[in-house]
Design a protein that fits this description.
- The chain is 27% helix and 24% strand.
- The protein is an alpha/beta fold.
- The two termini are 12 Å apart.
- The structure holds ligand LLP.
- The site of ligand LLP has 21 residues, from strand 11, helix 9 and helix 10.
- Ligand LLP binds next to strand 11, helix 9 and helix 10.
Length: 392
């Protein structure tokens, strides 16, 4: 682990960043930006008394988890291993929410052993198994029903989760039957309602639609004389991938205000969020080096030492990440397809990017890669894992 001094997120023209000595590819994590982001979230959320769970799936680096846990955040986990890791890094088990459509018996037992805050349940068979396993331990498991609100998140189809066609959650027409069955199950207790409609949502009106849908649902529950203790609206707040320096910290103020203005919470009901990308997305960059510049008849390829094995988002979701050459001194620009070395045509970070004229050995920075970057890496082609570098 190295420490680079004098780095700022706005790196394009920054000549002080000691990137020359770095082994590449490397994930560069700006811990001071993380701290500022955490502070902004806590300030805005505590204004309304909201509880934030950090979604470990976005980035599970130990040091980063410890920093987030230290600030009093809860955790949103999607596997038994994430629960174990969250506890190890200092998250209170009483602030751990456990989501996922396919929780195994072993994972449920792990969660029961830690007496977590909530099992966010996605089907009746799952609730029945949790009841059975909790009974064996003479426990009563806290349940939140993950309801599929059928709200369109207007984001990439692979990260849309709140439509009936998606595998996630309980459909509204199933609720009645599930509540009836739950009344017979003695080792589970309904504590909350959970929603998560998708990720990288940049149009805040989408969250208004979610609030309206939850309000209607709450009316139905009220008519059945049910008021749950908490509502969990998941995550999904997007970040500015196109101009990361304009918005290094997402607009948490406006985001939380939407829920305050449009969600009709019942007295004593607490609102929870599960934020991933908006917490860690902008604090990470993927540093890479140009191996070759390859001229083709119509264009040039910049072949860099980072690949889809380090960052799969462009290949998987056609995701945009800002790319900068931070070492070229050229005043002229050229169009490049920026590609990795892996034997797959999809190993492309971006096509036709305008960059200063680049050469072998130049350093390339792929921005906004703190979330869903390193965690989705693979060793395909027997490639090494990227280095990890912290700036503090
Ligand atoms: N809660 C639940 C139930 C989730 O499924 C997710 C993300 C989150 C919270 C956190 O969402 P966030 O605040 O990060 O949007 N690999 C994809 C993103 C997958 C998101 C999966 N669920 C990507 O690289 O865009």
């Amino acid at each position: 682990m190295h420490c680079i001094q004098n780095y700022t997120p706005s790196t394009a023209m920054n000549k002080q960043f000691d990137f020359q000595s770095q082994k590449t590819p490397a994930y560069v994590y700006d811990l001071s930006l993380l701290d500022q982001t955490l502070k902004a979230i806590q300030t805005e959320a505590s204004f309304y008394g909201y509880q934030i769970h950090y979604a470990l799936k976005a980035n599970n680096n130990a040091l980063i988890l410890e920093r987030i846990a230290n600030q009093g955040f809860g955790a949103d986990c999607v596997s038994g291993n994430e629960i174990t890791e969250a506890v190890k890094r200092g998250f209170s088990p009483q602030k751990i929410a456990f989501a996922g459509v396919g929780k195994t018996d072993e994972e449920i037992n792990t969660a029961l052993n830690h007496s977590i805050f909530s099992f966010n349940c996605e089907s009746l068979p799952e609730i029945e198994i949790i009841n059975e396993l909790a009974k064996k331990k003479q426990q009563i498991a806290p349940i939140a029903l993950r309801i599929n609100p059928n709200v369109n998140a207007n984001t990439h189809r692979y990260i849309t989760t709140g439509l009936e066609e998606n595998k996630f959650g309980i459909n509204i027409w199933e609720i009645e039957g599930i509540l009836e069955r739950m009344s017979e199950l003695k080792n589970v207790r309904l504590k909350g309602l959970h929603f998560h409609i998708g990720s990288q949502i940049t149009d805040l009106d989408t969250f208004k639609n979610l609030c309206n849908r939850i309000n209607l649902l709450q009316e139905d529950f009220y008519a059945r004389q049910i008021i749950v203790e908490h509502i969990n609206v998941g995550g999904g707040l997007g970040i500015n991938y196109h101009q990361p320096d304009l918005e290094t910290i997402p607009d948490f103020k406006s985001y939380f205000k939407i829920f305050h203005d449009f969600l009709a919470l019942r007295p004593m009901q607490k609102l929870h969020f599960e934020l991933g990308r908006s917490v860690v997305g902008q604090m990470g960059s993927l540093l890479s080096k140009v191996i070759y510049v390859k001229k083709a008849s119509a264009k040039s390829f910049l072949i860099i030492d980072a690949a889809m094995t380090d960052l799969i988002r462009p290949a998987l979701y056609q995701a945009y990440h800002k790319i900068e050459n931070i070492s070229s001194k050229s005043q002229e620009t050229e169009k490049y397809d920026v590609v990795g070395p892996v034997c797959e045509s999809a190993d492309i970070f971006a096509k036709a990017v305008d960059l200063p004229v680049s050469k072998r050995g130049d350093f390339i920075l792929i921005r906004s890669t703190g979330a869903y970057g390193q965690v989705m890496a693979s060793n395909y082609n027997m490639r090494d894992n990227a280095q990890v570098v912290f700036i503090d």
